[in-house]
Structures are given as structure tokens and as C-alpha cells.
Amino acid sequence: MLFSLLSCELPPPGHGARGSAANRYSTYRYFRLIVNVVAFYLIRPIPIPENPRLTSQDVTVVIPSLALEKDRDEFWATVHSILATDPFQVILVTIDENVERVRLMVKNMTTDKVRVLSVTHPNKRRQMVRAIPEIRTNVTVFADDDVKWPRTLLPWMLAPLESEEFGGVGTNQKLRRAEAPSFSERIWGYLGALYLLRRNFDCAACNYMDGGLPCLSGRTVAYRTKIISDDAFTYGFTHEEWNSEYQLNADDDNFITRWLVSHGHKIAFQYHRQAEVETTLENNPKFLKQCLRWSRSNWRSNITSMFVERDIWRYVSELVLKNRRC
User: Fold this and answer.
1) For residue 168, is pLDDT > 80?
2) Which of 93, 183, 230, 237 is most buried, taking the most CB atoms under 10 A from its CB?
3) Nearest-CA neighbor of 59 among 274, 302, 223, 254?
4) Which residues contact residue 180 at a Cβ distance below 8 angstroms, ignoring those fewer than 6 apart?
5) What is the helix (H) or strand (E) element at residue 205, kind and residue range?
6) Shortest CA distance to 304 belongs to which of 217, 231, 212, 241?
7) Residue 62 backbone phi and psi in degrees, to 5
8) What is the pLDDT of residues 60-92, one digit of tens each?
9) C-beta of residue 62 within 8 angstroms of C-beta of residue 128
10) What is the CATH number of domain 2-7+52-325?
């Protein structure tokens, strides 16, 4: 887990820094790269057992979404790809303003597995919490409304959860390219694809090194329902503040990742082609704003982990003592 935090990019020395500082920074970067490459080469996903205890019928999928009319086709492509994996239920959580339109569209679908809920105002954390009391399965999967799942996804996500030690499971991700893109869209798409590839590489390597990772991405992630249905979790999740002044609505995946660590639950990252979800990123200059938002979220979460909650240090100490005994 500490290795996950240290894998975040450190700012390079300023222009006035001495050459020795610049050399130390370069040494750190290349040392980290070598360690990551070795770990990435060695990691293997937790295999699907021959007789699994958990099946797709133990899974409820929650999709928080505004369900905007302009994104209708992409949204329903997401829902159909998820239904193809045969979960027990899919819960769509939108806002009151759009709920009747979404219910009408669901009514026209040939399935009784989709349920629609709503909240008053757009707020991803509140939308997620709105669905949790309605879940009746052992496993909850949160998914964004722009992802596309392979039919093989759920068995791979459930494999680590066969062990009670694991509380959360992350997935491989790749970019879904635009159809007939312009030249500029190709450039932005290329940068987005590189971002996701680098993230897969980082998460897989860090998870091999110490069982942690920078963050369990909310694009598609599985949790044990009993963890997120705890009243203490719900309160903390909906009342998180930054600097005792600003209530956070973003960073939902960072909060849950830290919660798993602080409560002693292991995290798995299934790096496998059959556990790879497709997602979309901005293919225009707005991509830079996405990167800025992710960077802010990561630094907020890392500072909270290391200097506020400080569970990371206990985790690392226990890991070191365990390795010494071995």
C-alpha cells in the first residue's frame, strides 16, 4: 500500500535545485520503473475456482447516472452489456427530474432485472448510498454509465471474493475509441488510451508488491455488500470533508479504497483480458481538465492516508513484521 502511494509522480526539482537533487529524482523514477516492470511481469490474476461458491446471481450492479437524453444510446449500451453477464439485479440511480423518462425506457426492455431509483439532486455519493439498502446480494458492483463489460467479467471479479479476506476487487480498463474520429480526436484518444494503460500497469505492479494500489477505480469495482451497508461507512461516506471546511462529493472511489485498508480488508486487482472493461474519456481539450481533477483527487486522498488517517503506516508495519517472521 505504501508502494502505491510512492508510485504517484513526485514533482521534479525546481529550476534552482542543485544537480544532486535532480539526480536523486531521476534515480528514484528509474528505480521505481524497474521495480514496477519486474512486479508487473510476475503478477498473476486470482484464478476462477472450478466450483465457485459465488456466482453472478450473488451480484447486484449499481449504476449512478444522470441519464441525460444526449447520452441515451451510450447509457443503454452500458446497461445491455451488464445485463449480458446475468447479474441478480441492476439498480439505476438517477435524479428526480429524469426518473420517469428512465422508468419508461426500462419498461420497454425485455427484462425484469432493472430497477430505477432517484435522488433529488445530482450527487454520486448520495446516489450510491440510495441504492445500498435495496441490495439483497452478497456482492455489490458499482459501475459508471459509460462502460462496456465483457460477458466474462463477473467470474473473474468474484474469484478473489471467494476468500473472506478480500473486500474489494478492481478491473482492467481500456479506452473505447470514437467512431470515425477526426485527427484531433485521434490525438486525444491516444493520450487517453496511454493513461489507462499506464494505470493498469501501476495498479497491477503495486498490488503485487504489497497488496495495495493507488485507488480502486469506480468505473467498475466490486465490494462485499456487508462492508458498504455498515451505518458507520454510510455516515463517513456522505460526510467526508477536506480541510474541515469543504464537503467532498467527488473522490468516492478513493474514500472506499481507504476504508477497506483501515478496516483490514484485502484488495485484489484482476489483471486479465477477460476482466477488462471498456470506458470513454474526453477526446478533446476537456481531457486535460479530467487529468487535473484526477490529480487533485489523488493528492487529497494521499495526504489523508499518510497524515490524517495514518492507517497506511500500521499496514506497512504489520507487513514488515510478517515478512521478518517468514
Assistant:
1) yes
2) 93
3) 223
4) none
5) helix 183-210
6) 241
7) -110, 125
8) 999 999 877 667 888 899 999 999 999 999 999
9) yes
10) 3.90.550.10
